[in-house]
Design brief:
Length: 197
């Protein structure tokens, strides 16, 4: 049996970049190779990992659907995400970083599932699939058709208009893979609309 868990954060206040072009969803290995060539032509000095490509495509496809600008990969956010993902894996925990916001607020999406059972695109699609509960005219926290903002919190962080950068990392223990994505500026700000603010 395989399982998946996810957490997203909400914020009560104001919270060396690399750009990745927005590309169509990958439905085949051939399309992925084509996307890789486009990325390499666009950003020749950066060698994108498969994980970075898959996560950036998922994030930026979701943003394109709602008409917001694509995110850029941020190596500093990636380092923060890696440090916290490793902490969660090492201590068999799954909670938001209690130290987030000490220096700066970063948005944070967490994903946890059976080790080796899920691809990177599946991990991100778990967050993006929350759009089926998204209330398009809602103001945070009233952004879900079921009245529970946490049902769409990962998705709203991904599409949050003022968020411009993301960095993600994965860590594993004997049983689990844990994906952490950090966002700047943070989304899910109380009293704001995810797209129209």
């Amino acid at each position: 049996m395989h399982y998946i868990l996810g957490l997203s954060a909400i914020f009560m206040g104001t919270p060396a970049y690399l750009a990745l072009p927005s590309l169509p969803p990958m439905n085949s290995e051939r399309q992925l190779v084509s996307a890789t060539v486009q990325i390499e032509a666009h950003e020749a000095e950066k060698k994108w990992t498969f994980m970075q490509m898959q996560l950036m495509l998922a994030h930026n496809d979701a943003r394109k659907e709602v008409g917001v600008a694509p995110l850029q990969w941020d190596e500093r956010l990636e380092k923060h995400a890696q440090k916290y993902a490793q902490y969660l894996a090492d201590h068999d925990k799954f909670d938001h970083d209690p130290n987030n916001g000490v220096i700066e607020w970063q948005g944070e999406n967490l994903w946890k599932g059976t080790r080796g059972a899920f691809g990177y695109a599946q991990m991100a699609d778990g967050w993006v699939s929350e759009k089926k509960f998204y209330k398009k005219d809602g103001i945070m926290p009233d952004v879900s058709v079921n009245g529970n903002w946490t049902a769409v919190g990962h998705y709203t962080q991904i599409i949050w208009r003022s968020t411009t950068h993301v960095g993600c990392a994965i860590a594993s223990n004997d049983t689990d893979d844990i994906l952490v994505c950090r966002y700047s500026p943070a989304g899910n700000v109380m009293g704001q609309h995810p797209i129209h603010h």
